[in-house]
Design brief:
This protein has 13 helices and no strands. By secondary structure, it is mainly alpha-helical. Helix 12 runs antiparallel to helix 13.
Length: 287
């Protein structure tokens, strides 16, 4: 088979790589530059560490960072944990499995802000869950799930929104495992839990790793769920960045928060990769 010269491959890749490099590179350059006082939108431009020093000493940024990371971690872990049994259940087609899969993937087609308003009707003080539990006699008075101090309402929304995404990634990995491998394990006396821990989980770790990273990054920078269902005494990083730039017109500090979000996403991705890579076992070549 004849292969193209390297310079022709570079020309073919240039439109896509060039567009990505132009858009991502220029945006990253502007944000980082503004965080150091360059390309200033309000006043003179001058290189300075002042905005970083002020922002890193601001307790609001500390609270927002802890709050956003907490929701992103719980959201990513919760979505993947819930995705595994659903993917295994739907692995073999049965009557109604297609309809169930479609219903579970429905949140992917709903914009985040719309989804937040819809779910507020479910988790609000007089929402469906509270009214149902009162009617069943489970509780005497409504429980505060929206705008709770810990952020459980936002975590539930993140899991609900990200669950279909985790299912798609994990389903591809689970479905790629040959049935005869699992059948052989059963013939050798392995229980369902042993088949999951010894075969399915190790073989699907690359997909799990990607799911955790992408869901974490999406939840970390989300705005809509935090603003509608989040606690009233804390901002997320995205909310703090928006308020800092549009209400206080401190664009340089807003750029610092944006860089903090990107650095947090990079560090979290490295931690997830380092934590999961050692468990990826290669047991042999599949023939």
């Amino acid at each position: 088979m004849k292969t193209l010269p390297s310079w022709k491959l570079c020309l073919l890749l240039l439109p896509s790589i060039g567009t990505i490099a132009l858009l991502m590179g220029s945006t990253l350059y502007m944000v980082v530059s503004q965080s150091f006082g360059l390309h200033n939108m309000m006043g003179d431009s001058q290189f300075s560490f002042e905005f970083w020093q002020d922002s890193l000493q601001d307790t609001k940024l500390h609270v927002a960072l802890v709050y956003s990371v907490k929701v992103a971690v719980f959201g990513a872990i919760g979505a993947t944990i819930m995705a595994y049994p659903l993917v295994l259940w739907l692995r073999k087609p049965f009557t109604g499995s297609t309809a169930i899969t479609g219903m579970l993937r429905a949140p992917m087609f709903i914009p985040g802000l719309v989804a937040a308003f819809l779910m507020v009707n479910v988790i609000s003080y007089h929402g469906i869950i509270n009214e149902s539990m009162i009617w069943l006699g489970i509780i005497d008075k409504p429980i505060r799930m929206q705008n709770d101090s810990f952020g459980w309402g936002v975590i539930v929304l993140q899991i609900w929104k990200q669950l279909p995404f985790a299912m798609i990634l994990l389903a591809g990995a689970v479905n790629s495992i040959r049935s005869d491998v699992l059948d052989a394990a059963s013939d050798l006396g392995a229980s369902s839990w042993q088949r999951f821990t010894k075969i399915i989980f190790p073989l699907t770790l690359p997909a799990l790793q990607v799911s955790l990273i992408l869901i974490f990054i999406g939840a970390l920078g989300d705005y809509s769920f935090y603003s509608i269902a989040g606690p009233k005494n804390a901002y997320s990083l995205a909310m703090l960045m928006h308020i800092t730039s549009t209400e206080f017109f401190e664009w340089n500090k807003s750029a610092v928060i944006a860089v903090v979000i990107m650095l947090t996403a990079i560090v979290a991705s490295l931690i997830i990769s380092l934590a999961t890579t050692p468990f990826m076992k290669k047991t042999g070549k599949l023939k």
